Amino acid sequence: MIIETERLILRPWGEDDAEDLYTYASVPDIGPPAGWPPHTSVENSLEIIRTVLSAPETYAVCLKENGKPIGSIGFHRNDLAEANDEYELGYWIGKQFWGQGLIPEASREMLRYAFEDLGMNRIWCGYYDGNEKSRRVQEKLGFVYQRKTEGIEVSLLGEIRTGHSSLMTKERWQRVELFRHQRKTLDTFLQNGAISRAQYDKSFGDLCELMEMQGVE
């Protein structure tokens, strides 16, 4: 399965991606916030591709311009997502690409794929205390915060952490997509000079409040 967005290609991982994976996954700021240790060698990355990243619905996040993987995204089931009609969404991206909106872009298409093509009804997403980047991605996507869980054992790092979980239902996703469509209409009006910046800001604020989409992008 290959999934495309405006700037990205999401495709299965291959063994020849090991060197690129190591380049990004060896950086200490990537794995530990998500609960896994930095990769220690290209061979270690190859083993992770064979054992972890070969799982169904797991994709390399690649730039269209060169097809090289710069991160990973995928669905899995665990204690959050146990039913047949739900998944948990996980993601990470190389530090060099932070702040460019690439993971939100990939995640939006993954949500569409889950609800429209895979027949899912609920998608969960979680983050550990202190992982503000992941929390903000979930907020941008429109996930709704559900609960805080203390005393989570992070076995790969030998730590006990506090986790937070958020949920996107199919109905909520449909509303988020409607909100984004209406926002694009406002953007077009602003660009064409049909409304002023003040009118845009007022209309956008009203739209966010009416649809309960504060923080969604």
Structural account:
With 217 residues, this protein is α+β, with helices and mostly antiparallel strands. Helix content is 39%, strand content 26%. The model has no long low-confidence stretch (mean pLDDT 94).
Task: Give a nutshell description of this structure.
The chain has 217 residues and is an alpha+beta fold. It has seven helices and eight strands.
Number of helices: 7
User: What kind of sheet is the major sheet?
Assistant: 8 strands, mixed
Major beta sheet, strand line-up: 1-2-3-4-5-6-8-7
Radius of gyration: 18 Å
Number of strands: 8
Query: Residue share in helices?
Result: 25-40%
Distance between the termini: 27 Å
Order of helix and strand elements from N to C terminus: EEHHHEEEHEHEEHH
Mean pLDDT: 94
Question: Which stretches of 5+ consecutive residues score pLDDT under 50?
Answer: none
Strand content: 25-35%
Q: What does the overall shape look like? A: globular
Q: What's the layout of helices and strands?
A:
Layout lengths: L2 E2 L3 E4 L6 H8 L5 H4 L7 H10 L6 E6 L5 E8 L9 E8 L8 H16 L4 E7 L3 H10 L2 E11 L4 E11 H22 L5 H15 L6
Helix pairs in contact: 1-3, 4-5, 6-7
Which structural traits does this protein have?
single chain; 217 residues; alpha+beta; 7 helices; 39% helix; 26% strand; globular
